[in-house]
Structures are given as structure tokens and as C-alpha cells.
Amino acid sequence: MPHHSTASVRSVVCIALCIGVCGCATDRSIVSLTQWGWGRSVDLSGGKPPDFSRRENDEAVDINEEESDKPPTRKEPRRLFGLGAEQPKEEKTPAKPRVSNSDPRWWSSLTPDRSRASDRELAGERQSQERQFALAEKAFNAGNLDEAQRLLKPLTKKKNENFWSKLWLSDVEADLRLDHNRVREDSLFLLAETYNKQERFAKAKEYYEVLLKDYPSTRYLNTSTKRMFVIARTWLGMPKFATTSEVTPVNLEDPRATPIPKRQKPPHSAILVPNLFDKSRPAFDTPGHALDALKSIWLYDPRGPLADDAIMMTASHHLHAGNYQEADRYFSMLREEYPQSTHLQASFVLGSHVKLMSYQGAGYDDKQLEDARQLKESTLRLFPNLPERERQKAELHKIEEASAQRLWDLVELYGRKDKPKAQIIYAEELLQTYPKSSYAPKAREALAKLKPTATPVAIQKSSDEGFMKRLLRRSTDETLGEEQDTSARARMNSTTEDPR
What we know:
Distance between the termini: 123 Å
Number of helices: 18
Largest sheet: 2 strands, antiparallel
Structural class: mainly alpha
Oligomer: single chain
CATH class of the domain at 221-358: Mainly Alpha
Shape: flat
Strand content: under 5%
Order of helices and strands: HHEEHHHHHHHHHHHHHHHH
Strand order of the largest sheet: 1-2
């Protein structure tokens, strides 16, 4: 018996196992090596010898001798191990297009699936909400405010509020947002009205603000802003708008010597003292909540009838409280955004006054002083029949004196530092800019003492580049002021032709 190596025996066994496994895996008879070599598959179960005379591409025909009357049936050719046979083609029905009401954008998969709720369920929910609102409205008209609040609170909550809706990744169409409906809008307003009737103004303000925020175009816009304006005035102690008669003279030579008017603090202005018993006020900071209500008026209804009144009330509060910088900011907003307002003249006069009250002296920045000068000059040009015209002229003269004082302080400063060249520069600038001021004679005396001892270079230095820049800046400011006056006058004329 010849000796066979172990490796060759293992190879033969592996091949035999593979052939057996592949044959068992199919539903056909086992394929012989001879058939494998010819690339055909013939059924050898009948014991007949194979017929290899046919070509590979010929079709095999199987005819049964007992049933020769029947037409012959064609048999599918077999491939290697039965794996290459052609499978019968099945007719595929065309898939129906998927209809979806969801947003086709990529983040639509992150939004909650609203397709589960059918139109019938939504309609039923809306009808139940309308019935509940009708009951609440009936209780409100009957004076049963507690029952109306109990029925209205569930209707004011948002539906399906989740993390993605807060990030504005959800669909914002009106027909897909369950929280954007007329019933919720009416419920918010009616609930705020119930709290307003009970004089629980903090709760009423809260629901009015939610209504204006969620429904900016609500039909209750004018009514809500009126209610919030009354609530703010009540919390501020029923104040009146600031008038030009409240203006006090300002000592510009020594601003610290200016008598500060008595500050009118609103009631309950203590911030850290909590409110535990009065339900008409918030728990903390009643004036702050009042200013927040006024801000909501001109923020959510900037072109409404109470927008300029809300800004004027805010500016008046800061003026009475002695917060002149905040008052200046709101007076400026009123002049720039509402030129047709009835408070325009007062905003010019009071705006220049608070700018002067913010001035701290010659040792500090002169921006408030220059702004007040330009504003007073504009006031005199825009309102020729101003009752306070003479007082405005007197304050303009004081502003010039304060500006001349700043230059004279520089002359004295450089005299103490023993720098005659700088003294000559600022003394001549004082004479050319403010020749009628009370500091002009002092500047002439200083120049008479300094010029004989100064060198020609020092005299020539008096017309240096810095001095020319300051003169150019002053002329530019005057030109800009005239342009602003022209535009403001044009807006006032258009207002006269087309009143609000």
C-alpha cells in the first residue's frame, strides 16, 4: 500500500466534505465531478448514462413516457452546485408614495410625531376646549372669578412642549402647532382680566406679558397695553409726566454746589424688604416690576398709542429718582424714535437739563457739556415760541463760561508746571473761541506777560495742529447740529400735514 502524506489526505477529506455540504444545501441531486467539469447538471437518479453530445447552451427537455400526450416541459439548466440557476421573476407591485404631513427637512425626525393624532381627535379636543372656555366666560360674566380661573388655567398651558420645541427646531406652521390656537389666546386674556378685577396686579401683569409674547398680533393688544400702563402707574404711586417747570438751575462752575431736588421715591421702593401680605404688589422690587411693565408696552407695541407715553413715564421716573444718566438715555430714545410725539418739546428741554446735571466739573470729560450745548441750540431753533426761551439762552451762556473755565484751568496748570509754550497755546485758543467770556481778560493778561519772554517758536506754536483740529471739530459739530435740526423740522412738518 503506497504511503500517502498526511497533508494530501487532509486535502482530499476537506474537498469531499465541501462537495457533500454544498450538495445537501440545495434541493437538487448531487453533482458529480464529471458534470462539474462539463459545466452542466444532469439528473443521474434514473441510472441512464449521461448524454454529453448537447452543447452547453442547449435547453434540456424532460419527456415522460407514460404521459406522452402532454406537451413537453422545459427544464431549467443547472449551474455549478445549483447556485447559478435563474429564479423566476416575480411581478412587483409599485410601492405607494408615502404621504406625510411632517416637515421634510432633516430636523423633522427630531420633532414630536404629530401624525398619530388624527384630525378627528384634534377637532374633538378643540371642541372640548371651546366648551370649557364658554363655561369660564359665563362664570366671569356672572362674577364667579374663582371658578373662571379654575377653568381657564388648563387652557393657557402649551401643548406638547419639549426640548426641541424650545430650541425652535420644530415646525412653526399654525396648523401643526397645537399650542397656537384661538382658545388659548382668549383664555390668557380672560384669565388676566380676572386677576385684574381682583386687583392681583402681579398675576395680571404676568399673563398680559405671556399674551403679548406668544401672540404679538393679538386682537387684545390695545386693551392689554392700557391695563399694563395703569398697573405701572399704580405701582409707581400715580406719578405724572415730568414738565419743563421742574427744571432747576445748574451751577456749572461748581456742579457739586448745585442743589439736588428732593427725590420722589415711589411707595414700597425698598428692594430687599419682601411683600408677604399685599396681593396687589409683587413680592420684591415693586418699582422695578412697574418699569418692566412699561418696557413691555413699547417693546411689544412700538407703534401703539401708549408707546411714547411709556418711555416718557420711564424717563420721568428716573428724573425724579435722581438717576440722570438713565433719564438721558430714555429722553434720547423718545427724541429719535418718536418725533411725532406730544412729549417731543419736553424731551428736548428735559434732555438738555439731565445732561447738565450729569456734568461733573472741569476736571472730567466734557462730552455731556458739549451735548447739552448742541441740544439747547437745537431746541431754540426748533421751538421759536418756547416759553423757557430766555432760560435756555442763559444756560447756553453758562455752558460757554464752563467751557472757557476748562481752558483757563489748563493755562494755570501749565503755569504751575512752568511750560510757557503750552500756556500761550491754550490762552490764545480761549480768546479765539470764547472772546466774550469772563476769562478772556485773564487770558490777555497772561499772553501779555508770556509773549515778550517766549521765543518765536513758542509764538508760532500757538497755531499748532492740535488747535486747528479743535476748531475744526467745533465747526463740524455745529454743521451736524444744523443738519439734525433740518431733519427734525421736516419730520414735524410732515406730522402737521398728516397727524396721527
